[in-house]
Amino acid sequence: MSDKQPDDSTATQEYIDISLMILKRFSGRLVFDVFIRRSATHYTKVFQKGDTVCWNRVETYREKGLRHFCLLAEDFDKYTIMVKYLGRTIAQSSGKFSAAETVVVLKETVNSTIQDIVDSGEISEQSVESAANIVTVCVDNLSRDTEVLFRLIKAMGEKGYLQKHSISTSIFSILLAKASGINSAPLLQKIALGGFLHDIGISQLSFMPYEKENFTDKENEEMERHPIFGREMLEGVKGISNDVLEIVLQHHEKADGSGYPNGNKLSFPPAQIVALANEFSALSLRHPGRDPMKPKDIFEAFRGRSQEYNETLLDHFENLIRPNRNR
């Protein structure tokens, strides 16, 4: 839109804030209109669908103190696709991005995950956003050590699924922890961080499990070691407590001892929470070879093998995800 005057509009439609920094990093043609907010009811279109983003204009807005652009709520899905693309780019070439830009991409992925969770279930948006705020605190804490941040993002892979699954698991873990009566901020942050990093050991496998429907015996053996790999990767990392390490190690253990890697009966409450949230997230997200399951079907599957879970946690979780199921 370099040769056009900005278009003014009023807030007769719903608008959503998006990151100015994200837009500056996108090099393709836009698939949505972009606005700036002049007031609570007045918006000005500064880029339109089909434009190539002018970095100098974005930088000018940033220098004036602007931190967010806006887009129509109906275009948010298109924006999240762009965020996913940038997430893959960071994983492939993290050296080209600053720590601040990496954190922004992660936080925007958190925002898109919030929308997905709200759209797919019966959890209030306020509850999901509250849980997500704790996840963003964890992201901020990780960003204090840029080398660790880039290493962890690269380890989450280039496909995008693992980043979203990690964030989704973290959010569901916080929701479940709060529903179980946990209110301690330090403990909630440990649970959030454990949920975010739980699958980091996947990066050490010789294959990508999310791209396969069936594993060979050798791949199964390797897969069952990824919690050990994850713990080993995180040992000695500043800000990663022993509780977080135990969550990562135990997130596939079961209450009846049928899980892995050690086949121990899962009794560590934070790990019990993340283990259940991890399974729910994995089944509710689409990935190669499998369509997402509906919450009703997921909990029917859980109830069919209830011996694997803490029964009280399972009740709390279903009440959280399906509060209206008995109506």
Look at the structure and give the CATH class of the largest domain.
Answer: Mainly Alpha
Strand content: 5-15%
Report the span from N to C terminus. Answer: 52 Å
Number of helices: 14
Low-confidence stretches: 1-5
Compute the CA-based radius of gyration: 21 Å
Integer average pLDDT = 87
CATH architecture of the largest domain: Orthogonal Bundle
Domains, number: 2
Largest sheet, described in full?
3 strands, antiparallel
How does this model look, in words?
The protein has 327 residues and is mainly α. The protein has 2 domains: 1-78, no CATH class; 93-321, Orthogonal Bundle (Hypothetical protein af1432), CATH 1.10.3210. Helices cover 54% and strands 7% of the residues. The chain has 14 helices and 5 strands. The protein has a 3-stranded antiparallel β-sheet with strand order 1-4-3, with no helix packed on it. Helix 7 (161-179) runs antiparallel to helix 8. It is globular.
Structure summary:
This protein is mostly helical. The protein has helices at residues 20-25, 55-63, 76-92, 99-120, 125-142, 146-155, 161-179, 185-197, 217-223, 226-234, 242-250, 269-284, 295-304, 311-321; strands spanning 7-10, 15-19, 34-37, 42-47, 68-72. The strands form 2 sheets. Strands 1-4-3 form a 3-stranded antiparallel sheet, with no helix packed on it.
